[in-house]
From TrEMBL:
Keyword Oxidoreductase: yes
GO molecular function, a single term: metal ion binding
Assigned EC number: 1.13.11.24
CDD domains linked to this entry: cupin_Yhhw_N
PANTHER family in the cross-refs: QUERCETIN 2,3-DIOXYGENASE (PTHR43212:SF3)
Domain (Pirin N-terminal) ranges: 12-122
Annotated family: Belongs to the pirin family.
Named cofactor requirement(s): Fe cation
Binding site for Fe cation: H60, H62, H104, E106
Annotated Quercetin 2,3-dioxygenase C-terminal cupin domain residues: 155-234
Name by which UniProt lists this protein: Quercetin 2,3-dioxygenase
Amino acid sequence: MPATVEIRRAADRAVTTTSWLNSRHSFSFGDHYDPANTHHGLLLVNNDDVVAPAAGFDTHPHRDMEIVTWVLSGALAHHDSTGNHGVIYPGLAQRMSAGSGILHSEKNDSATEPVHFVQMWVIPDKTGISPSYQQHEIDDELLSGLVTIASGIPGHDAAITLHNRNAALHGARLEPGGAVNLPTAPYLHLFVARGRLTLEGVDTVNEGDAVRFTDADGRRLTTDEPSEVLIWEMHSKLGG
């Protein structure tokens, strides 16, 4: 497979809007189905959500999915049927393994301020595992460069674990003049959570833009303004 770099612009995403939700989808999701845009590598969902104060997702089911939630601003309250509950805020990594089946709710923890977060889904290596939940704070580490937020890749030192041995999520908050080298991997997905960056040899990418790589070659990412990026490193794809 030849190496490719494909930029998906923020404005081209499908959008779900309700009285309390603005959700922008990098891939097919819910009522928005595009057979040519169902996933990249192992990543099935990359939703960029803003939830109004005192609102959110009522209790609903999931099964056989690794769900990672990353809050950009505000606070998100989580409750699930295994007894886990907590409030997620910027810099606190959270993973829920739906496994054999779980019910959960996600609500804005504030009555006055919106919450903005990115939710990402990958499939586990095995179906029917026991549901589980994990969170870990890594806020300050994000300023030091590219940090592994979640991983199932053997040998990775990650804040939280994934039940997929071919997937890892990295993140960084870059100040003006900052730079990181992207991982090398058969599949890479870069999402600009905020700010604007320059991808070596390609183009400028802005908030909400995504870049899909095959045979990613470790090129450099730089910025001249405060920026935050989320990068999935994947060594397999769905079905192979």
